[in-house]
Amino acid sequence: MLNSLSQTQLQWLGAAVLVLIVLLIVGIVWYRRSRHYLKRFDKTLKTHALGCYREIFIPDGVDGHIWVDCLIATDTGIWILDIRDYEGDIFAAENIDEWTQLRQGKSLKFNNPLQQNALRETAANLLIKNIPVRSLVVFGEQSRFPKNRPSGVVMMSELQGVLTNAAYSRLDSNLMNDAWQALENTILENQQQRVA
Q1: Are 70 and 124 in contact (CB under 8 A)?
Q2: What is the mean pLDDT of each run of 10 residues along the chain (196 residues)?
Q3: pLDDT at res. 37
């Protein structure tokens, strides 16, 4: 069959095979990086979380819902984590509406996740009484903040230290368990309503 192809067709076929090989290598590298990132995150959660929900909607208090990447219970309260596995330089400030990711010479804008987390905290506080609710934006190790890293933003490698920070008061375990149970009931009820 290859004998019936012209020289030009063989060159195009060779180029196509080469492109497929490069795409396969890039895909494997990306997959391994993302798996490593998720394994580290899972290990941190298994070690320090009393309970965890990922990729859920919670009621926002005004007849709507708000997306939460990760909602966890620890012995210091409830944490809302916004996970950002971005690569490149991140230019950010607490009080600006858009942040910028600079990657391979390209500039990409995205909404300030701290503002989004403030809305998530408000929604969670409506569901949980007498338990502290805190939020963090967690960036992967492929991100860099060359100028300023705003308060409320941590790197994945720092997450464990933040969750176990001795500055946060430990809560009564019964109080924490009751609050988490009530929150779980709301989450499950909300999920059933969204499916129905």
Answers
A1: no
A2: 70 79 70 59 74 89 89 91 92 95 93 96 89 93 92 91 81 88 85 70
A3: 56
Distance from C-alpha of 101 to C-alpha of 142, rounded to nearest angstrom: 11
Q: Decide if 52 contacts 41 (C-beta within 8 A).
A: no
Residue 7: CB atoms within 10 Å: 7
| Consecutive H or E run containing 66 | strand 65-74
* Distance set, CA 46 to CA 43, 68, 174, 177 (Å): 5, 19, 20, 17
Helix (H, G, I), strand (E, B) or coil at 5: coil
For residues 101 and 89, is the Cβ–Cβ distance under 8 A?
Answer: yes
pTM across the whole model: 0.76
Report the distance separating Cα 11 and Cα 16, nearest Å: 9
